[in-house]
Amino acid sequence: MDSTHLIALNVSSIVTIAIVTAGIGYFLPRAEVVDYKKLNEKKEVTAKPFTHPKLTNPESLWDNDWDKRQPLVESKSSGKIRNIFLIRHGQYSASEKDIDSEMILTEVGKKQARATAARLVNSGLVFSKIMSSTMARAKETAQFIHDSFPDVETVESDFFREVFPIDPVPALPVEYDFPRSDKFIEEVAAEAGFRKLFYRPDASQAQQVTNEIVVAHGNLIRYWLMRAMQIETRAWARFGLYNCSITHIKINEDGSVKAVSIGDAGHLPQDLVTQA
């Protein structure tokens, strides 16, 4: 028997040990020889990537005219960019009756705000505007940042106040739920804030790249992120954001949007990392 032949030994009538000059193979009792070369040459792919059953048309996954500002006549892009830095406020004191003036930054919250201001300074970026919610905890956080950028315009807006943006899926525990009448109003407010803040740069933008800071709230930032990424907005409660974390959204002139970072809290030492 030459080296190309298979030498087989039957052991206990169950296992067949096959010895081949190229190596050792293990076969079922029938001792069928598998041609692995032909097997590897097969072009068929049996494993398919996961696709959500509702998303059957890939083209429908992105609406490039999401801000209703897509040019009617395509022209050469000048490559302008808007960078939006969404910052959640620092840790704050609770209020039994949700009185805003009582919900001010704790000492930890103040340290978080200072650390975030230092992080923005160290970025070396030139910021064109600091925007803030009109709620006390956000205004305080924004003030710490403004102290590091005294020449940058600061604007407060009710559009950036905390809201319950939309009923999440899965639903939140009952103790975290809001009255239906409140949600009816606040869902509209969340969407209005998004439309006011998120849009592509156009010819009216003087700078090639703008960097804008927005100090807002956890629910709102998570909702805005879902909207900006065109992901199902009811998923907003499936992840959390640390106090004074930074979420960086980049909007290009062609309407494309990228989440550069989400909930970045790397500038905070471990003892200042909180979510409440």
From TrEMBL:
One Pfam family linked to the record: His_Phos_1
GO biological process: positive regulation of mitochondrial fission
InterPro entries: His_Pase_superF_clade-1, His_PPase_superfam, Mito_Ser/Thr_phosphatase
GO molecular function: protein serine/threonine phosphatase activity
Transmembrane segments: 6-28
Keywords, comma-separated and alphabetical: Hydrolase, Membrane, Transmembrane, Transmembrane helix
CDD domains: HP_PGM_like
A cellular component annotation (GO) from this entry: mitochondrion
SUPFAM superfamilies in alphabetical order: Phosphoglycerate mutase-like
Family membership noted in the UniProt record: Belongs to the phosphoglycerate mutase family. BPG-dependent PGAM subfamily.
Protein name: Serine/threonine-protein phosphatase PGAM5, mitochondrial
Gene name of the record: PGAM5_2
